[in-house]
């Protein structure tokens, strides 16, 4: 257990002062872990406080509407996390009487809770010795132990999980897990790690073999898909516009957007009006169709790059029930739409 002791000692001397480290309340730890999935700490911290302020306990969150939760989540991305958060809050509040499961085995059954999150909650809140393995942990262990198994392969996930489980402190699993993650974030960084002050430098395989940039190993990523979105921003004589809710299991499920015409390539006005989806909105225009941004706005997601144009469609009557311009910023929308609403002068 020498590894664990040295790691925890480093942590106690170097850890950041983060709000969720001052509590063992499973609600607050769960909330922080869901927010921090695929989100940097500095980006997630304001959302953590916003959610605690709006929903101080599991029952207040469970009684919220999906639109309230999505609106508060707006800008964090990966919105399925927010929907799972609400689903699990309802389950814990109404099925379990507000009591969180206390073991990794039971926690991992909750919607939106995977192995890492279950391990983090179990160790921090209930002192269960379950290793929490994320990207930081992969990097630290791959470099120190010279592991070349790809971290995003099933064999790699199993190997790193088993190693972390063997190394974890049985006496202090909470600090061990937080220490290993913190070490990867602050010391053994993806680029320019602080090797000269590293407590493990003498035995680190990557450092001693000059292979820091080669570890950890990852399988090649999926090819990024390019998509072309054309949003129709209707402006009626009555001062109303149209927002529609996205359906299905694609990106931004449940969020609102302006009517969308997706094309296979960047569209000119001549191309756009020929699209079947556009022709569904055959309306009498006032000033015609005008392009708001000549250069497409590129919104990058993990496996998709969205090239976006906003088309201003001034008309006498709307194609469906509308909302006032002032109401538009009350709906949960993708950050792409939020930025447009904030900058466009309705």
UniProtKB/TrEMBL annotation:
Binds 1 [4Fe-4S] cluster. Residues 35-186 form the HhH-GPD domain. Adenine glycosylase active on G-A mispairs. MutY also corrects error-prone DNA synthesis past GO lesions which are due to the oxidatively damaged form of guanine: 7,8-dihydro-8-oxoguanine (8-oxo-dGTP). One of its GO terms (molecular function) is metal ion binding. It holds the Pfam family HhH-GPD. The keyword DNA repair applies. This is Adenine DNA glycosylase. It comes from the Bacteria. GO terms for biological process: base-excision repair; mismatch repair. Belongs to the Nth/MutY family. It catalyses: Hydrolyzes free adenine bases from 7,8-dihydro-8-oxoguanine:adenine mismatched double-stranded DNA, leaving an apurinic site. Its cofactor is [4Fe-4S] cluster. Its EC number is 3.2.2.31.
């Amino acid at each position: 257990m020498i590894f664990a002791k040295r790691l925890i000692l480093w942590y106690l001397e170097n850890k950041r002062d983060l709000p969720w480290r001052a509590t063992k309340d499973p609600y607050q730890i769960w909330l922080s872990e869901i927010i921090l999935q695929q989100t940097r700490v500095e980006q997630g911290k304001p959302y953590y406080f916003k959610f605690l302020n709006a929903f101080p306990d599991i029952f207040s969150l469970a009684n919220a509407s999906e639109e309230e939760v999505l609106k508060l989540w707006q800008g964090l991305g990966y919105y399925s996390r927010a929907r799972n958060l609400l689903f699990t809050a309802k389950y814990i509040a109404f099925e379990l009487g507000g009591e969180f499961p206390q073991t990794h085995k039971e926690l991992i059954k909750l919607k939106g809770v995977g192995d890492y999150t279950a391990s983090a909650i179990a160790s921090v809140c209930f002192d269960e010795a379950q290793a929490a393995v994320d990207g930081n942990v992969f990097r630290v262990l791959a470099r120190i132990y010279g592991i070349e198994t790809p971290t995003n392969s099933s064999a790699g996930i199993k190997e790193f999980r088993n190693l972390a489980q063997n190394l974890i402190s049985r006496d202090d699993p909470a600090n061990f897990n937080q220490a290993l993650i913190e070490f990867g974030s602050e010391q053994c960084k993806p680029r320019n790690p602080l090797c000269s002050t590293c407590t493990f430098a003498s035995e680190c395989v990557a450092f001693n073999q000059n292979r820091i940039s080669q570890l950890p190993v990852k399988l090649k990523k999926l090819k990024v898909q390019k998509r072309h979105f054309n949003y129709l921003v209707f402006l009626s004589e009555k001062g109303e516009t149209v927002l529609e809710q996205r359906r299905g299991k694609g990106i931004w499920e449940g969020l609102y957007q302006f009517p969308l015409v997706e094309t296979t390539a960047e569209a000119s006005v001549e191309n756009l009006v020929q699209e079947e989806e556009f022709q569904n909105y055959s309306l009498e225009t006032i000033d015609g169709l005008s392009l708001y941004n000549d250069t497409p706005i590129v919104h990058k997601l993990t496996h998709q790059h969205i090239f976006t144009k906003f088309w201003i469609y001034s008309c006498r009557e709307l194609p469906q029930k509308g909302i006032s311009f002032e109401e538009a910023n009350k709906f949960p929308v993708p950050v792409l739409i939020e930025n447009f609403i904030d900058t466009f002068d309705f």
